[in-house]
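Extended Data, panel c. Modelled sequence:
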Amino acid sequence: MIKRILIVILLWLVVDFYFFAAVQTLTDNLLIHVAYWLVEAAIIGSVFYVIATGKLKLISGVIKLLVLSFVPKLAGALILLMEDLSRLFRSFPLRNDEVSMLAISVAIVLWLVLLISINRGRHYYKIRRAFLYFEDLPESFNDFTITHLSDIHAGSFTDVKGVQKGLDLVNAQKSDVILFTGDLVNNEASEMTPWIPAFARLKAPYGKYSVLGNHDYGDYIRWPDIKDKQSNFNRLKQVHQEIGFQLLLDDSKMITKGDDSIAIVGVENWGKGNFHKYGNLKKATDNLSDETFKILMSHDPSHWDAEIIDHNKPVQLTLSGHTHGMQFGFEIFGFRWSPIKYIYKQWAGLYKKAGKYLYVNRGFGFLGLNGRVGIWPEITVITLKRK
């Protein structure tokens, strides 16, 4: 994450110098110029302070400052760029005051929109529904409903009413089963302690099942001793029990309805690149037949292309999370975009390949950026249908 922040800072500086040209066009007031760069210096200073001191609890505030500074200026800089391209074909290629004013006005409006979205978007839960058809779905499971949650990140929560609003929406779906695909906490099991009673009240007649995400292992902070890290991990597994979720660690559980059964399969975290590959898909499915209808929970969607699609035991439906949709982007009239798409091929919503489905949940909580812009927190309701 720190490496990504440094890359953003470099991009931000390029945009900042370009955007400053609009400020210079409109005013030659030295105090305004100095104030402009003092604010930017303070933001950069706060970033390096967090990196140098390792105070990761402050990082969400720093990311918020970066977003509020970078994105509005980027929009303004694009307006300036279009004008500069037109200046190549003008007889008198002087920068237009009106265009500079437009660039600054757009930046100010976008700054206000971002500020409101970040503060309110963190609990602007969206119910997203998917109806999935399978030829091999057991007849008794036609119209079986799943509420899919992911990326709770309890360590980021501060608003009790906001969180409860989301949990009430989960229970209101009255789904047959609730499946949670990992990242219950940011780093430590204790982050979940004040939220245990609320999450324990989630109900589903066929049970609640969960897996671990990359943040659940405590790999991103320094522990005084390896025993402390293991103790935290053991406590986290107990928390899953206390909130009523059956944690599947490279294991499966059969759900029976009428005369039919399906398998809920859960693997430990497995991710491409630098993420740990704790999960063992073979171990999780060893006791299942090829004909068994399988719903797999795997936190990281990169696992789907890497192992799941070509696994020797077919997995009809995979549920993942992890990406959060980067908590930033837009989804309008069927078109969606987020910077995360350049990192993850499958980053939000439903995907289908070779007759198999993957659903990537955008996340219930938030991390890093202390809020959401355009990519809202998600509660997914999937209905299984027999062809």
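The chain has a mean pLDDT of 92. This feature is highlighted in the accompanying rendering.
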